[in-house]
Design goal:
The chain is of the alpha+beta class. It is 63% helix and 14% strand. It folds into two domains: 162 residues, Helix Hairpins (Orthogonal Bundle); 129 residues, Glucose Permease (Domain IIA). The strands form two sheets. Strands 1, 2, 4, 5, 6, 7, 9 and 10 form an eight-stranded antiparallel sheet that branches. It has a two-stranded antiparallel sheet with strand order 3-8. Helix 2 packs antiparallel against helix 3. The protein is rod-shaped and about 175 Å long.
Length: 404
Amino acid sequence: MKISPLVKRTVSVLLAVSLAVGMTVPTGTTAFADDRRQELQDKVDEQQDKLDAINQQIADNAAERENAEKTKELAEQQKELIVGQITDLQELIARIEGDIQTKEEEIAAKQVEVDQKQAEYDARRQGFKERLGAMQKLNDGGSIAILSSATNLYQLLTFADTLEQISSKDEEICTEIETQRQELEQQRTELENAKADLEADKADLDAQNTQLEGKRQELVNSIQQQNQTISDADAQEEALEAEAAETRKALDQAAAALDAYLNSQVDKYSDAPMTCSLNFGPALQTYTYISCVFGTNGHRGTDFASPGGTPIYAVADGIVTDATYHWSWGNYVQIYHGKDDEGNTYSTLYAHMISTPAVSAGQNVTKGQVIGYVGSTGYSTGNHLHLEMKINGVLTNCLNWIPS
């Protein structure tokens, strides 16, 4: 005789209720289970803390490397600017050195002119002195002989004037030569002053050049230091990434052991005569959006963003196999929903609840019953429900079974 699905479900529910009422777990077994859970949880927490510390070191190392890159880039820009300034200064210094050389040549040439003018003055002055001596001799006795040689009255009358004119002309020429020599001396002095100004400018530019060279060397040293910092950071990153990989491996193993334990909690109830009708309901009446879908970057479930405190509902009848805290899930509830007609088992997990779940392990729940409230506990960055579903202990996309 074929039994109708309604009768099968009714019988299954009655059997499940009777099993839940009659089910007792020895105190010693419960304590052992809790100890085992805590032991596995501690191992996961230990590896997670270690991984968090390594990731923080990686982040700090990356920040230090980035800072070194920025410092190096700024130093290179400043160095390039200073090198350009040094080049301009050296070109200006070279021009000033050329001007100084030119002034030295002009001063030397002007000195030759001064010396020539001085020699001319000395020669003229010597001739003047000789003529004055000759005239003095005339005045002393030779003038009578000269006067007696005059052939006419004009020569006799103009003789004294002629002597005076010769003397005046000599004096005038000497004065002119001396004036010219003084002008040349003044020009030479001006050239020497201009040369001194150029030398002062050059000394100032040399000082600037020395200062810039010192700054350039400081920047070169800074760039070398930043290169060393970057090199050290790269080596440190490689070492930390290797350490992180090993820690992630250990964390995955610890998490897998804890997950296996959680599955075993479901398995404890697998013999309960519960039939899963596959008529699942929503875990939330409303939500804002789906923030992460199943399988994205290895994501185990589906995340429903929703305001904190939003009620969470059991998606089907079942038995609570876990209602506690997990390092990643935060406050969570796991429910076993029984088997379908083909013997496949179904279970769901609700994570990141805002506070201690509203149900406890071993408790029977019905579809639509409030089991907790949306929060952001555990490894979470905002209020949402993380919902997982397993068929025969294997994770699957809950959206294929549970209405969203």
